[in-house]
């Protein structure tokens, strides 16, 4: 087979197929391969008019079709399937070639794969791709991690196919070595979980407090989308709430089973945060809320438990409450981004990635699921101060969240009084209050640990580590 393809894509499910089409539409000759040959032939047959495709029936044909240095994009299921594809292709490649993993891989797997391939002289680029099937076709947000040389080989291609941000720059940037790209994509997905849960809680509160039908609440979300909450998720929420089921005529949201599914990246975000010792309570509650929604037998058991009945607000109070919910939603959203960015910074420090948070925010401004107008301000905050310890340390965001705290508290209090679950709103507010509390009850927790386990403690008034002999004379003894 003549080596005429500039890039190859193996794995032609929806994301891989659309990414291959995106490449072809941008003028690249694309070699395509799938372990099921029929899928390869279907892609060429259905979309061959969009550009130059070269159908490869085997991995050997695929490699032979690629110009050197070869650029191969792997779009298969994360985990063992990705390892199997790499094991199949690596012996066929030469030093200087590059493999791109565009799936939702765990960053630890990416680090392992990058190190193993580096020993063979093969570049590996772990690349988060966000935007779903539409983004893959029309322009996703792209988050690559790997060596600078690996990125240099792919940068022109990724820049061409990425989404375009409002200021005209492509939504792609090199985010650091080995697993940095997939880590940023993982946290992106964790923030996405939080964003979606907060929006769902806002809807749930409005529905219970006002009695408005979903179509009326859709108007509220449309209005919010013209202001500081302008985002892709707010936009589609309005569309969903306004939609009616064709079969029953009921609001579409009322005919969907109330059990949210997940593919695992949210869980990874929480697990990794625990490993790093980084508090992401708002994101964690969003993950747990999805999990609890799917436990039907457990929820059925709890359905008879006593609790307050929601009370409907009058028109004037309903309008006032709507404004309070907007404030709570915005403040909680800022908290979820602050937590996620803190997690990325901690990982960058731990693994030596030197990931720039302003660049992360810039890449998220287009193509991805969490794209939102306010990411311009997030980028600007970290551009002004790359060492910003938290998004809440930025004066502008601190001022806005502080101004929102009273309505935020009223919303959480209303939810508690009426028995409407708002775990993400409440967790975000608790995080805010924890940050602003000068002295926490953690002192008591540490004393308890020293009492039952001799775990020692530090004093607030002098350096060193100490242990109190609780079972004898309760005297304090330095341990260092």
Break the fold down into its secondary structure elements and pairings:
Layout: E1 7-10, H1 14-25, E2 30-33, H2 37-47, E3 53-55, H3 59-65, E4 71-74, H4 80-89, E5 98-101, H5 107-119, E6 123-130, H6 132-138, E7 141-145, H7 148-161, H8 180-210, H9 214-224, H10 232-242, H11 252-255, H12 265-276, H13 281-293, H14 296-302, H15 315-351, H16 357-363, H17 375-384, H18 395-418, H19 423-436, H20 442-453, E8 457-458, E9 465-468, E10 476-478
Parallel strand pairs: 1-2, 1-4, 2-3, 4-5, 5-6
Antiparallel strand pairs: 6-7, 8-9, 9-10
Helix pairs in contact: 1-6, 8-12, 8-13, 8-15, 9-10, 13-19, 15-18, 15-19, 16-17
Short description:
With 480 residues, this protein is of the alpha/beta class.
Biggest sheet strand line-up: 3-2-1-4-5-6-7
Question: Order of SSEs, N→C?
Answer: EHEHEHEHEHEHEHHHHHHHHHHHHHHEEE
Number of helices: 20
Tell me roughly what share of residues is in helical segments. Answer: 55-70%
Rounded to an integer, what's the Rg over CA atoms? 25 Å
Report the average pLDDT across residues: 95
First-last Cα distance: 70 Å
The low-confidence runs, each spanning 5 or more residues with pLDDT under 50, are none
Question: Biggest sheet, in brief?
Answer: 7 strands, mixed
The number of E-state strands comes to 10
């Amino acid at each position: 087979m003549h080596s005429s393809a500039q890039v190859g894509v193996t794995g032609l499910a929806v994301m891989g197929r659309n990414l291959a089409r995106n490449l072809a539409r941008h003028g690249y000759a694309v070699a395509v391969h799938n372990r099921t040959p029929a899928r390869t032939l279907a892609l060429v047959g259905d979309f061959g008019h969009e550009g130059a495709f070269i159908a490869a029936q085997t991995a050997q044909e695929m490699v032979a079709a690629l110009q050197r240095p070869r650029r191969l994009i792997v779009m298969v299921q994360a985990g063992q399937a990705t390892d199997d594809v790499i094991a199949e292709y690596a012996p066929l490649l030469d030093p200087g070639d590059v493999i791109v993993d565009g799936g939702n891989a765990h960053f630890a797997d990416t680090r392992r794969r990058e190190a193993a391939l580096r020993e063979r002289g093969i570049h590996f680029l772990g690349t988060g791709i966000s935007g779903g099937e539409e983004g893959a076709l029309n322009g996703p947000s792209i988050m690559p991690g790997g060596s600078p040389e690996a990125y240099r080989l792919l940068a022109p291609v990724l820049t061409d196919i990425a989404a375009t941000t409002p200021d005209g720059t492509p939504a792609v940037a090199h985010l650091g070595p080995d697993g940095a790209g997939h880590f940023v994509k993982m946290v992106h997905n964790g923030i996405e979980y939080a964003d979606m849960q907060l929006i769902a809680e806002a809807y749930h509160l409005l529905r219970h407090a006002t009695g408005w039908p979903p179509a009326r609440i859709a108007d509220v979300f449309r209005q919010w989308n013209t202001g500081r909450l302008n985002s892709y998720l707010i936009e589609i929420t309005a569309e969903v709430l306004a939609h009616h089921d064709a079969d029953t005529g009921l609001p579409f949201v009322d005919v969907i089973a109330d059990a949210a599914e997940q593919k695992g990246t949210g869980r990874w975000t929480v697990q990794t945060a625990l490993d790093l010792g980084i508090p992401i309570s708002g994101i964690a509650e969003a993950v747990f809320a999805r999990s609890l929604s799917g436990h039907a037998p457990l929820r059925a058991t709890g359905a008879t438990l006593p609790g307050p009945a929601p009370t409907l607000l009058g028109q004037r109070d309903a309008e006032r409450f709507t404004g309070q919910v907007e404030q709570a939603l915005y403040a909680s959203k800022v908290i979820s981004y602050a937590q996620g960015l803190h997690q990325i910074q901690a990982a960058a420090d731990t693994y030596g990635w030197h990931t720039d948070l302003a660049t992360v925010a810039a890449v998220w401004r287009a193509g991805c699921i969490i794209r939102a107008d306010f990411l311009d301000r997030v980028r600007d905050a970290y551009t002004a101060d790359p060492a910003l310890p938290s998004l809440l340390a930025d004066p502008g965001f601190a001022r806005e969240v502080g101004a929102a705290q009273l309505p935020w508290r009223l919303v959480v209090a209303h939810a508690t009084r009426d028995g409407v679950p708002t775990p993400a709103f409440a967790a975000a507010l608790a995080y805010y209050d924890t940050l602003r509390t000068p002295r926490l009850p953690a002192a008591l927790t540490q004393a308890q640990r020293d009492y039952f386990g001799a775990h020692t403690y530090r004093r607030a008034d002098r350096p060193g580590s100490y242990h109190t002999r609780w079972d004898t004379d309760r005297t304090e003894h330095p341990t260092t």
